[in-house]
Every structure is written in C-alpha cells, then in structure tokens.
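WARN retry 2 of 3 for item q-0093 after timeout on previous attempt; input resubmitted unchanged.
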Amino acid sequence: MIGFSPEFQITNEGMADSAPAPPPPSPNHLVPPVPVPAPPLPTEPAFTFPRRPPIRVTSEFDSDSSVFFHKISCKFLDKVAKLKFSFQNHTNGDIIEPQVSFISKHLSIHYDVEDQNALLKASIEVGPRLQLRAVHDVKAQQGELSMVANLVDPGYTLELSSMVPSVGMPRATLKFPLGEVSVEERAEEELKPTLSINGILKGQSLNGVYTAQFKDEDLKLRYAYKDDEMSFIPSISLPSNALSFAFKRRFGLSDKLSYLYNFDSNFWSAVYKRTYGKDLKFKAGYDSEVRLGWASLWVGDEGDKAKTAPMKMKVQFMLQVPQDDIKSSALMFRVKKRWDI
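OK item q-0093 returned
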C-alpha cells in the first residue's frame, strides 16, 4: 500500500499558493458608464389663474357697549391699492355703519352705505417739491383744496388750503423745525372778518423741552424735563392761570408711577404700571374728578396692532370701582383678533 507522504502534500499546497494571479483589467477595456438622461423641463401652462391676494379679517368686541366691530381688507395690484369693508353689529345681529373703502397712494374713496354718501380724497405730485391735495364730500357738495410746497430746507413746509365753495381767504400754515404757525380768516356774525393766528413753538433748555401753544387769545406754556428715571412736566394756561404739573417716576425697567395735579380745581390722578415682557401689562389708578378707581390687564402690546400680538389677538380686562357706590363696580373686557386668510 502506497501512502501519500507529508512532503508531497506540503509541496502541492505550496505550488497552489504560488499560482500566478490574473492580471488586472486594462483601463482601455473598461465598460463606459451609461449616461443618465436629463429630467424633462417643466412645461408652463398656456393660461394661469392670478394668485388670490391675502385677505385680512379683524374682529373686535367691547363688553361695555356690547358691539362687535369687523373689518375685512385685502391688497391687490401688487399691494398698490387696498379694498376695505367694515361694519358694526350688536349682540342681536343688527348691522350698523357699513362702509366700503378703496385706498391707494393718490386716490381714496370712502363710501357710507347707510348715508349713501362718498368722501373722495386725491393727491398728485406736481413736481419734486409741490403737491396738490383735494377732499370732496359728495352729499354735502363741499370740499377742500390744498397746495403743499417743500421749501429748500427739508424741515420747512408751506401749505395753502381753501374751502370749496370758497368762503374767504385761504388758510396758510408754515411748518419749520421748531414748530408751526397758521393764519386764517375767521368770520363772525355781524362783525368784519378777522385774522386768527394759531401755532406751536418748541425749544430745548436746561436739559428739557419747552412748548408754547397759542390759539386766538389763549396761550399754554409747558416744560418737560426727562431723564432715565424721572419726568417732571409743569404747565400753565393764560389768561386763566390754570396751573398743573405731572410727575413720572420709573422704578427699574418694568415699574412706572405717574401723578397729575391741577391747582385750579384740586383734582388729581395717579397711575401705576407694571410690564411683564412685551405682551403683558398691568395698570391701576385713581381719578379724583370722577371719584373712580380702576385696574386694567393687557394681554398683547397695548399700543401696537393685533398682528404683532401672540396668536394675533389682544385682550384687555378692566375693573372699575366707583368711590361713592362700590356695589356698582363693573368688570369689562375687550377682545381683538386678526385672521390672515
């Protein structure tokens, strides 16, 4: 019996391991990649419907008057013009004071449905520094024409306006950086027409702003001093010599106290305000003239529009407590909500 020797087995395994490996494929014989076809270009339809402009709906309810106020508006023609429809309705569903308005830069039309009357406003730029304005009440057949001229300095403006039909000399108003002055003719029964001068002048002095407001024979002088923590505002009216002063004190960034006192009547009022962020405000105060204390809570910025409030909604709660009849205290609220459709 002939057996296989271990050397022969090892020799065969070594020969198997030493077999030459196949050569790598030549790059000249590689299969070219299959080109991917480009996606077809989208074809535009022959006709497209114009995109609907966004519609804004604003509703407001006042519990004191129990009246809803609604406003529906939309901008079109690339936001060049706006169409607005507004009306009020009571809790019983009656619609009152419906109005339709068309508003643009140079022309505005306000139509009162109940009165069947329209108020037209128009303006046109005659030149870079001259503008003409017109207002016309269709039902009353009355209006006003105005010419506004910007002088060489941008802070100076001259305006001439006259009623239509004309009833006298036009009113002239000169506006300048320190205030404005108006001169117009005033007609009184059985007296000759006289000139009436009205105006307001402002200036700075002693880290404050002083204001002089005059109308016919009345003059009101006011001085306002204000820094980061305090405001002091005395004022006097002549010739009645009615003197009053207002004082405001800020305690930090969120607390503020205001006080007003009238020396001629001894009436005074005080208001405390505290803010919690931008969208929450608490106010409480007292008015001695009407003998009424009150407290108010605002959800949403009090002086801003509903579109900047959370959920585009503003809510106000107010509690009024009469000093002479506490039992007749009333809790009122006001809600304003906006929808963008």
